[in-house]
Automatic annotation (TrEMBL):
CC cofactor: pyridoxal 5'-phosphate
Recorded GO MF terms: transaminase activity
Family: Belongs to the group II decarboxylase family. Sphingosine-1-phosphate lyase subfamily.
Name of protein: Aspartate aminotransferase family protein
Source domain of life: Bacteria
Keywords: Aminotransferase, Lyase, Pyridoxal phosphate, Transferase
Stored Gene3D superfamilies: Aspartate Aminotransferase, domain 1, Type I PLP-dependent aspartate aminotransferase-like (Major domain)
Pfam family, one: Pyridoxal_deC
């Protein structure tokens, strides 16, 4: 057993750190070892439990209902509100879209109106459930345009979406105006607060300016909020709340059309591990309302310090003043953003590059946690060093011939051999001397090539990349 655990630790050594406040994407760190300990022990205690049947594991049902109650209080939900604990923000969004589609069977070709900044999970839901995504350009401040959103609604619209905040830019949409326009036409309005739902209410209590977005806004019919983000709970849990039970009912699924047990599910999953539910409940129980107010204060103090550090660097600017805990920065022509990303990673700060989109150039995304506050001086120093290194290295160029070649390709007509060649040419994958898959250690050239590709080509290349990554490792024997 010790050999197995030793190998597990060795494997984990290649991963990004989930603690220490320096991984500014994918993970959310409270900076509190006691929270981490409680979460781990609760997950382990319930790892074998199954939330499929609430009558078999009533403790999980109680924990879920208590989590929903905390979220209802946090989000100004009415007494009629109900909800569901899901596996993450994407599942919450999928269920919101599936439920509204099934609530409107008379609409032959249902549509949902999205600001162009809405999370990609809505596009996934459109793909899965046959709900057309109608994209509406946002304003110059990257917030949804309420008038344009209203103009895009018609008799086939079953859902309108707003973000609190949007992931790419960290700003809150004008939810009140959007929800009012939707309500006037009898259309549901979903607020994607997967990022902000557990921190924006505390931001308001801390005196920060927050655009109204909760159930206190008339016309908001459902909200998604991730507990594995700023509730600092273990991966992966999220909450989907509906204003009343009638709105949730189409989300629920039952089937007695087979000889086994009657299937009954509130989520897209059947079997659900009790571990994440128990871990989330334990963390929320331990931290409590006052604790989350303190953690939010630390996170926003870190945000303000990082914004100041970016403002002090002549080659950088904050793209838009953040409404929440997400910061997006851009660079001038002297500093390549993809090289800057690599330089920050090399100095122990993982930041997330965002490629060009709809006429806007590339940017760099930071998800700031309470755990980052203790290290903001280190970040400021790393930022200065990284900018200097990126400026010394110069811009990453893509050969014009390669650009022309990529632009001429039709991703729909490419075969596996074509993708293998493109992946090798882009630097996304290679081989070691032993024939094993080799991943790039620096991504600037890869990102520069992806940045000149069309969205369709990016998608095709990255799907091929994922396909190459996820292949069986054979030949290992166990005892």
């Amino acid at each position: 057993m010790s050999d197995t655990l030793d190998r597990l630790k060795a494997l984990q050594g290649a991963d990004l750190p989930v603690h220490g406040g320096r991984t500014l994407a994918y993970v959310y760190d409270a900076g509190d070892s006691e929270i981490d300990r409680i979460a781990r022990e609760a997950v382990a205690t319930y790892a074998g439990s199954n939330a499929l049947d609430p009558t078999a594991f009533p403790s999980l049902l109680q924990m879920e209902n208590e989590l929903l109650g905390f979220a209802c209080d946090l989000l100004d939900a009415p007494d009629t509100a109900v909800g569901t604990v899901t596996s993450g923000g994407t599942e919450s969004i999928l269920l919101a879209v599936q439920g509204v589609r099934d609530a409107r069977p008379e609409v032959a070709r249902p549509r949902m109106v999205l600001p162009s900044t809405a999370h990609a999970a809505f596009h996934k839901a459109a793909h899965y459930f046959g709900v057309e995504a109608v994209l509406v350009p946002v304003g110059p401040d990257f917030r949804a345009d309420p008038a344009a959103m209203a103009a895009a609604m018609d008799e086939s619209t079953v859902l309108v979406v707003a973000s609190a905040p949007s992931y790419a830019h960290g700003v809150v949409d004008p939810v009140g105006e959007i929800a009012a326009a939707a309500a006037a036409r009898g259309i549901r309005c979903h607020v994607d607060a997967c990022i902000g739902g557990w921190v924006l209410p505390y931001a308001a209590r801390l005196g920060r300016e927050v655009t109204p977005w909760t159930f206190a806004v008339e016309g908001v019919t459902s909200i998604s909020v991730d507990t594995h983000k700023y509730a600092y709970a273990p991966k992966g849990t999220s909450i989907l709340l509906h204003r009343d039970a009638g709105l949730r009912r189409p989300q629920l699924f039952a089937s007695a059309a087979w000889p086994g047990y009657t299937m009954l599910n509130a989520t897209t999953q059947s079997t659900r591990s009790g571990g994440p539910i128990a871990g989330t409940w334990a963390v929320v129980e331990h931290v409590g309302d006052a604790g989350y107010l303190t953690l939010a204060g630390r996170a926003f103090e870190a945000v303000d310090a990082i914004v100041a550090a970016i403002g002090a660097a002549p080659a950088l600017q904050v793209l838009v003043a953040p409404d929440s805990t997400l910061v997006t920065l851009t660079t001038d022509e002297t500093c390549d953003p993809f090289t800057l990303t690599d330089e920050l990673v090399a100095r122990g700060w993982y930041v997330q590059p965002q490629l060009s989109h709809a006429g806007d150039g590339p940017s760099i995304h930071l998800s700031v946690s309470a755990g980052t506050l203790a290290h903001v001086d280190d970040f400021a120093a790393a930022l200065v060093e990284s900018v200097a290194a990126a400026q010394a290295a110069g811009p990453v160029g893509v050969d014009p011939g390669v650009v022309a070649f990529i632009e001429a390709l039709d991703p729909a007509s490419l075969g596996d051999d074509d993708f293998d060649g493109l992946l090798a040419a882009s630097g996304l994958v290679g081989e070691t001397a032993d024939g094993d898959l080799a991943l790039p250690t620096r991504m600037a050239e890869v990102n520069a090539m992806l940045d000149v590709a069309s969205p369709a080509m990016r998608e095709a290349l990255l799907v091929a990349f994922l396909d190459r990554l996820q292949r069986p490792t054979r030949g290992r024997t166990t005892t």
